[in-house]
Amino acid sequence: MKYRIITSLTLTGKMRHIDLGDFAYGEWIIYENRLPRFHIDCFRENSDADSLINSLLKSKNWTIEKILDKINQTENRNLTLGYKTPFIEFELSSELQEIKLNTLPMDWIKKLENN
Question: How would DSSP label each residue in the chain?
Fold first, then answer.
C-alpha cells in the first residue's frame, strides 16, 4: 500500500513519519523501535485482527494506547503510536512510498481478549 511519508526539520533534527491524513478515523500506524511495522484499520472488513481490535475498543472501552501497553507487557515488545507532533516543525518534503505494513498478529490480540 502507498503511504505519504513526511520529512520534517525539528529542533532535534530531521524526522520522518507516515501521515494517514485528516480523514483517517479508526486508523493507526504502529511503530516498533521507532520503525513503522503495523497498520490498524478498525473498519477493514477483510481483517480478523482489525475486527477483533475494534471489538476490544467497543466492548471493553479500551483505548488503542491501552491495547498497545498490554501487548507490550505480554509479548515483551516496544510498540508505540510513534509520531508525536513536535513544538516546532518545518515540513521539508512529502512523498508517496510503497510500504508493506501488516496488521497486528492475531495471537497477540487473542491473548488480550481473554484478559
Answer: -EEEEEEEEETTEEEEEEE--TT-TTEEEEEETTEEEEEEETT-TT-HHHHHHHHHHHHS---HHHHHHHHHHHHT--EE------SSEEEEEEEEEE---BPPPHHHHHHHHT-
For residues 52 and 44, the answer to whether their CB atoms sit within 8 Å is no
Residue 26 CA to residue 29 CA, distance in Å, equals 11
- The whole-model pTM stands at 0.83
Q: Would you state the pLDDT for residue 30?
A: 93
Contact predicate 103/47, CB 8 Å: yes
The pLDDT value recorded for residue 75 is 92
pLDDT digits (tens, 9 = 90+) for 48-85: 888 889 888 888 888 999 999 999 999 999 999 876 77
Reference 17, options 27, 32, 4, 33; nearest CA is 4
Cell of residue 49, nine digits: 485482527
- Calpha distance 97→110 (Å, rounded): 32
pLDDT at 43 over 80: yes
